[in-house]
Structure formats: structure tokens, C-alpha cells
Amino acid sequence: MAINYHNIASDILDIVGKENIISTTHCATRLRLVVRDHESIDTKAIERVDEVKGTFYNSGQYQIILGTGIVNKVFEELETMNISTVSKADQDAYIKSQEKGLKAVMRTLGDIFVPIVPVIAATGLFLGVKGVVFNDNILGLAGISTDIFPEYLNQLVSVLTDTAFGFYLH
Question: What gap in Å lies between CA 54 and CA 23, rounded to an integer?
Fold first, then answer.
């Protein structure tokens, strides 16, 4: 039996309410709705809709799990029903404005620290390599010492490994 994506989209729209939807988007498996009032949605009714595997509310989005391939077609049907969709930036701004208390603090901290995690991880790896390569005990196993390295190489490696920690953590 063929899946009727239009009926699925229509059922979801009827239950959630067109006026309740601020924006729609989707990922590989979930339909993501930014809604005005997620508590007014009858979750049990949504979960009875054909092809719906489950629902949850997270990070300002009411997410409906449909599965790979199905979500794309249901989203396309919703688009034909003139659901207003705001830009990703506007959607993020709305979600942030709805967060209060500890959740807002955690998002702010995440926004600050998540971009620097790769730099700290790479610098940590370089520090590990530096610790092995410039270690007289390790080099002594091969019968050499750190004296074979020119001073500028040691300074260059120190700049690469120490700058990120000095910049970000001071």
C-alpha cells in the first residue's frame, strides 16, 4: 500500500494547528516544528498518525520522528499547505528568546566554548607530540638528544602549542 504523504502532513497540521506553527524544517529522520505553544499539542494524537514513530520537544523544537525518506515527502506536502517558514537565523533567535534561567546560561556557555574546542583539542595533540619528540629520555633510546634540534624549531613548536592555551585561557 502506498503511503499518502499529503494525509500525514494534513493530519499533523490539524493536530498541531497552523496558527501554532512559527517555522518548519527537517533533518534526516525528524520533522522539526518551532511552535508557539508545544503544550497545546496532543502528543498521543500525533503518535497515532500513520508513519509517526514518536515525538519529543527539545531546544525549542517540537520534533516528530518519521524516518528517512518519509520526512522529506511529508515536509514537501507541508510546504504546499502554505506553512510560513522563517529563516534559520530568525528561527534560532526565536528559540533563544524562549529560553529562560539555567537553559539560557548553558546555551550561552555552549555558544562561547564550542567554537574553541577543536583548537584546544589540536593544541593538546601537538603538546603530546612535543612531549615525545623533545624528550631526552625518549630520544636517548635512539642514541640522540634534544641538542640535535635547532633552537628556532623548539621555539616554533612552543609557539604552536602554547599560543592557543595562552590566548584562550588567559
Answer: 20
Predicted structure pTM score: 0.57
Phi, psi of 144 (to 5 degrees): -125, 175
- Residue written as grid cell 497540521: 13
Q: Are strands 30-35 and 61-65 parallel, antiparallel or unpaired?
A: antiparallel
Q: Is 27 a catalytic residue?
A: yes
- Encode the chain (170 residues) as per-residue pLDDT tens digits: 688 999 999 999 999 998 888 888 888 899 989 888 888 999 999 999 989 999 998 877 899 999 898 999 999 898 888 776 767 677 777 777 766 788 778 877 887 888 888 888 888 888 888 888 888 888 888 888 888 888 898 888 888 887 776 665 54
Name the active-site residue from 27, 109, 129, 138. 27
CB distance 40 to 102 below 8 Å: no
